[in-house]
């Protein structure tokens, strides 16, 4: 039955992909490349979010006729495109010393109404209102939204939560999956599969009928991640599916487009140049044709690794680097991520529960079986008994990774608490000695200059760590992390009037850094997690 459904999904998926809207590079061709490679706009995301002031074909015709010696590309862009509006200034209002009141007032600032179609725009119009993260992130993002919803729930904003779940179901039914964000240039990839958790969150407010309502969309998304599961042999891969040597199925992050990311085009081209140069400098070829074929292959692989890291949401981190130092050693698609597979275990269990509520015990038992098989494989490949913790697994090298990250806490959020209590004790000791800092949980033990490494901490990873410890008996540790993280968020707010995308948890008086863009203010998932922690632990700030 699962195979039949996968075949049906693939067949419909081909039709869906054939109707995908054009991306900025397809619409603007050489103009797109020239703008991005020459850094006409400081942030590569700006141009791909522009709206043309007239027919894109006319713009391209004029560009072809006008460019040449003395041509002012920056002026041409300004004359022909409407740049994205600057984000609202979220000024610190003195009477809002209380951070919870500030967040409750921020929801209206971050809210967007249903979109209208605009020719040449990269925005995917959504049918229902939604919340954006803030700053340069002007559209709805996949995994951000779950953590934002945690705060919306505490604010009593049930209607907008349901609107966003409906938007995600619409995206699944329209495009076959939930993209990274609601832009055409994000459609080739997804993000960590939190849709099941969003459905469960809404069900906790409105009741079990929610599970039955969203079951078709949840299952269709699951089949997107499992595309090709029955067509590969042990040791083979297809898109996001990896068949392990013992025949078990696990998943990896992926992207269907082996090209530079639209929104970070120049950065990806330069990174791929270094990657391919390093690889090919030690090789010899019998012909120019062989050399050109190899170069094409290695560039495609480089772009896929970079894009797969973007699908993970952890872009970028030494977690994906072969040498644990340099971006040009990235190898994301060679890695079985423990967080992704834990989330898919949760999707399988959520589908089992949904089918149980729908009265279909046959499908319920099938999903319970697949979930049990996945959990067994995660424990086999991703758990290090000696370290007492979960790690990613490098399936190309057939070895478990050694870098401690909060991703190893995801199994504690989803596996049965009773069977995880002893493991949680060991994990508690390890986390105290590695990731726990004055301001909460750091994203890794290594400081590489990447934004998803030390000393930065992020709301979603702090929440998952807190949740996992609380759920599996380490409640004191969970509250300690929550108090540190929430205290840091509040301290920065009191000093600056801002709620940020990420924080320096090691030195709480220094700003976070790294990444391809400046630290953003807003900020959806920070707001959501902070409100949820304040409520859960009755936190009061001095």
What does this protein structure show overall?
The protein is mostly helical. The chain is built from 19 helices and 16 strands. The strands form 7 sheets. A 3-stranded antiparallel β-sheet has the order 5-6-7. Strands 8-11-12 form a 3-stranded antiparallel β-sheet. Strand 9 (383-384) and strand 10 form a beta hairpin. Helix 7 packs parallel to helix 19 (524-536), helix 8 (158-175) runs antiparallel to helix 9 and helix 17 packs antiparallel against helix 18. The longest helix is centred in the middle third of the chain and has 25 residues, at 288-312. The termini are far apart. The relative contact order is 0.10. Mean pLDDT is 94; it is low at 3-18.
Considering the chains and any ligands shown, give keywords for the structure:
19 helices; three-stranded antiparallel beta sheet; 542 residues; globular; mainly alpha
Helix-strand blueprint:
Blueprint: H1 2-18, H2 24-37, H3 44-48, E1 51-52, H4 56-66, H5 73-80, E2 81-82, H6 99-110, E3 111-112, E4 130-131, H7 142-154, H8 158-175, H9 195-206, H10 209-225, E5 237-238, E6 241-243, E7 249-251, H11 265-280, H12 288-312, E8 335-336, H13 338-357, H14 361-382, E9 383-384, E10 389-390, E11 393-394, E12 399-400, H15 410-414, H16 417-434, E13 436-437, E14 440-441, E15 456-458, H17 459-471, H18 475-496, E16 502-504, H19 524-536
Antiparallel strand pairs: 1-2, 3-4, 5-6, 6-7, 8-11, 9-10, 11-12, 13-14, 15-16
Helix pairs in contact: 2-4, 7-8, 7-9, 7-19, 8-9, 8-10, 9-10, 9-13, 10-13, 11-12, 13-14, 17-18, 18-19
């Amino acid at each position: 039955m699962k195979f039949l459904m996968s075949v049906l999904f693939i067949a419909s998926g081909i039709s869906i992909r054939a109707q995908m809207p054009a991306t900025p590079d397809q619409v603007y061709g050489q103009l797109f490349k020239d703008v991005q490679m020459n850094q006409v706009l400081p942030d590569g995301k700006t141009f791909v979010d522009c709206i043309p002031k007239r027919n894109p074909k006319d713009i391209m015709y004029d560009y072809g006729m006008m460019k040449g010696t003395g041509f002012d590309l920056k002026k041409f862009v300004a004359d022909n495109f409407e740049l994205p509006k600057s984000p609202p200034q979220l000024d610190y209002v003195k009477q809002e010393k209380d951070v919870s009141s500030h967040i409750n007032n921020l929801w209206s600032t971050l809210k967007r109404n249903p979109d209208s179609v605009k020719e040449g725009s990269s925005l995917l119009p959504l049918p229902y209102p939604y919340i954006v993260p803030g700053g340069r992130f002007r559209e709805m993002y996949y995994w951000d939204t779950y953590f934002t919803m945690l705060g919306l729930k505490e604010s009593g904003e049930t209607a907008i939560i349901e609107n966003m779940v409906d938007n995600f179901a619409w995206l699944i039914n329209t495009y076959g999956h939930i993209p990274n964000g609601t832009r055409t240039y994000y459609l080739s990839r997804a993000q960590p599969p939190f849709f099941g958790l969003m459905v469960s969150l809404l069900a906790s407010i409105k009741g079990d009928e929610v599970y039955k309502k969203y079951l078709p969309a949840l299952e269709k998304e699951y089949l997107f991640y499992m595309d090709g599961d029955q067509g590969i042999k042990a040791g083979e891969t297809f898109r996001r599916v990896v068949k392990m040597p013992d025949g078990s199925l696990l998943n990896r992050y992926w992207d269907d487009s082996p090209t530079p990311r639209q929104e970070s085009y120049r950065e990806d081209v330069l990174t791929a140049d270094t990657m391919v140069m390093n690889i090919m400098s030690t090789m010899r070829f019998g012909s120019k044709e062989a050399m050109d074929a190899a170069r094409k292959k290695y560039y495609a692989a480089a772009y896929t690794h970079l894009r797969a890291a973007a699908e993970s949401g952890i872009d970028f981190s030494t977690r994906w680097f072969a040498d644990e130092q340099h971006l040009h050693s990235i190898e994301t698609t060679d890695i079985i991520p423990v967080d992704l597979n834990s989330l898919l275990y949760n999707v399988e269990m959520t589908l089992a529960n949904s089918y149980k509520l729908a009265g279909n015990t046959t499908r319920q038992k099938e999903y319970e079986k697949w979930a049990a098989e996945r959990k067994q494989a995660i424990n086999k490949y991703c758990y290090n008994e000696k370290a007492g913790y979960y790690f990613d697994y490098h399936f190309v090298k057939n070895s478990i990774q050694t870098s401690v990250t909060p991703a190893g806490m995801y199994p504690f959020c989803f596996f049965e608490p009773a069977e995880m209590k002893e493991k949680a004790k060991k994990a508690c000791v390890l986390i105290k000695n590695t990731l726990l800092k004055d301001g909460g949980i750091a994203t890794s033990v290594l400081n590489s200059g990447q934004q998803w490494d030390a000393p930065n901490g992020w709301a979603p990873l702090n929440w998952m760590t807190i949740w996992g410890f609380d759920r599996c008996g380490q409640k004191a540790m969970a509250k300690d992390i929550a108090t540190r993280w929430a205290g840091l968020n509040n301290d920065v707010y009191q000093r600056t009037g801002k709620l940020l995308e990420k924080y320096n948890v090691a030195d709480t008086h220094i700003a976070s850094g790294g990444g391809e863009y400046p630290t953003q203010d807003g900020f959806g998932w920070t707001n959501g997690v902070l409100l949820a922690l304040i409520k859960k632990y009755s936190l009061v700030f001095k």
